[in-house]
Amino acid sequence: MVASRYRLDESIGQGGMGRVWRAVDEMLDRRVAVKEMRIDGLDPEDARTRRERTLREARATARIDHPGVVRVYDVVDQGERLWIVMELVDGRSLEQILVEDGPLPVDEVARIGLSLAGALRQVHAGGVLHRDIKPGNVLIERVGQRRVMLTDFGIAAIQDAKALTMVGMLVGSPDYMAPERISGRPQGPPSDLWSLGATLCAALGGSSPFSRDTTLATLHAVLYEEPHLPPDAGRLGPLLAGLLAKEPQDRPDVDTVTGALAPAEPPPKHPEAPQPGTRTLDIGLRRPAPAPAPARPRPANRRRTALIAAGGALAVGLAVALALTLPDGDPQAGGSTPTTSRPPTVEGTSRPPTESLPAGARREAGYAWVPPKGWERVVKTASEVHYTSPDGTQELVAQSALAKDDLLATWQKSERAAHQGQDYKKLRLTRTTFRGRPAVVWEYLFTLKGARWHAELLGFDRGSRSFQVGTWYRPEVEERARATYERVKETFTITSAPQSSPAGD
After folding, report:
1. Would you tell me the crossing angle of helices 407-418 and 215-224 to the nearest 10 degrees?
2. What share of the chain is helix, strand, coil (3-state, %, to 5)?
3. Which residue has the higher pLDDT, 5 or 280?
């Protein structure tokens, strides 16, 4: 029981910002969702930051009264834990729908986009920026009107409140993050609309048009590369191209977006003059839906110069410290959206290679490992999990995805892009072996918020899946950190098939 009122039934989700429970409000006899934020075990400054962020989420959401935004009912402060009591939505996230059912048709995507645009109109009118619009934060009811709802305002920015950022991390999903947010330039409603465009592209094509094999490559694509729009975008193509313009002023506003997403008007009726012995027939022409005005042309060199300057200001550690996100993983809420693809296979079989599990192994999506006890677990996606040491001097990461191009070539490309950052120093990037089979190792140094970090990543393919296990740590704890990393690597085990991890630690 929480506050002698809310009875927790079962955990229904977990992500980087907390855990969500299905619960019952015993006082009003209604089902609710309760988001738990634990702040025990943190130093006073971290605890203050997390507490303020949680309260800010509640305030940001409670200020919005719109059917397309999940409602907040209550906030309970229990010292070491904070609880946000919210509307319980009987539905699935757009991300889950894409994983389970595949990409959606144009008309359904337009319906989803129209609902989200309406919600954003209300959100922005209240002086709030969501800042993390992505398929994992879009809920769609299973029955009835199948409402489309925007959720998780955990990193929303209230424009009249003091800004908060997560220490040592780039908060949000790079695949759906507007260029100006990555480069540290001012943000506004166009930043959310850019994320909306990337989300609608994912709904049509299965993944963000900027998803790449590594986080660094994804950030580079958002800043410098043009999007590859879904081939089945149809009438939404011009709108998506406009929403994903690099410069905020070149994107359509919410009114234009709403007009472009609205269903075509019913055809006007033009009755024919009745003829003797015949019936009157109604005929008409269907008018196409309005489209946004094309973005005004701008000199390519001006945009390139601005983006290069922005990219140079982006510390490589900030990007790399998020780990190498593989977009074809098996995500849940909070992670990258996957492409629809064939099941993993190995030569002569229909399953990936498997190994026996070590004692105490924790199963994740396609792999298992034995993380250190007492470390904080953060689920980025269903296939990417991080563990942070109690003193914050080391982080471990593991993940799986569908294998694509040669891993060394992919990492070399990302490494070249890393030179746009600051204080990056490569120690080695080469082929190696792991348990007698081919692998790639990338070791480097980087600086983040004035602190020096040492990173080492190990990647390898097994069958048609790719796996990574890595760490980054402060140099002063190198001996202890490397010993921990080696122990964890020895426990890394490939399981028979990708599967979601149960809610836990």
Report:
1. 60
2. 30, 25, 45
3. 5
How many helices (H) and strands (E) the chain has is answered by 12, 22
Higher-confidence residue of 463 and 483: namely: 483
Question: Do residue 425 and residue 445 come from a single domain?
Answer: yes
Which DSSP category does 501 fall into? P
Please state at what angle helix 300-312 crosses helix 215-224, rounded to 10 degrees. 150
CATH number assigned to the domain comprising residue 469 = 3.40.1000.10
DSSP 331-369: --TTSPPPPP-PPP-BTTBSS----PPPTT-EE-SSEEE
Question: How many Cβ atoms from other residues are within 10 Å of residue 121's Cβ?
Answer: 18
Query: Minimal CA–CA distance to 154: which of 336, 326, 12, 19?
Result: 19
8 Å CB contact between 403 and 461: yes
Both tokens of residue 55?
A: 């309260």
Tokens of residue 358, six digits: 């070590």
> Pairing between strand 30-38 and 81-87?
antiparallel
Strand pairing report for 18-25 and 30-38 = antiparallel
Q: Which of 354, 371, 396 is nearest to 498 (CA)?
A: 354
For residues 212 and 66, state if they share a domain.
no
CA–CA separation, 337 vs 230, rounded Å? 14
Mean pLDDT of 363-379: 86
Q: Helices 106-125 and 254-261 sit at what angle, rounded to 10 degrees?
A: 150
Split into its structural domains, the chain has a count of 3
Q: Which of 480, 460, 477, 457 is nearest to 469 (CA)?
A: 457
Q: Residue 472 and residue 481: Cα distance in Å, rounded?
A: 8
- What is the rounded CA–CA span in Å between residue 298 and residue 296? 6
Residue 469 in tokens: 């296990």
The pLDDT mean for the chain works out to 75
Task: Tell me the catalytic residues.
Answer: 132
Q: Where in the sequence is the domain holding 64, given as residue range(s)?
A: 6-87
**286 domain-assigned:** no
- Integer angstrom CA distances of residue 313 from 147, 210, 322: 41, 20, 17
pTM of the model: 0.53
Distance CA 217, CA 228 (A): 15
Binding residues for ATP: 35
Buried b (16+ CB within 10 A) or exposed e, 438-452: ebbbbbbbbbbeeee
Beta strands in 181-294 (DSSP E): 270-271, 282-283
Which residue positions form the known binding site? 35
Dump pLDDT digits (tens) for 75-129. Answer: 888 877 888 898 898 889 999 899 889 999 999 999 999 999 999 998 888 778 8
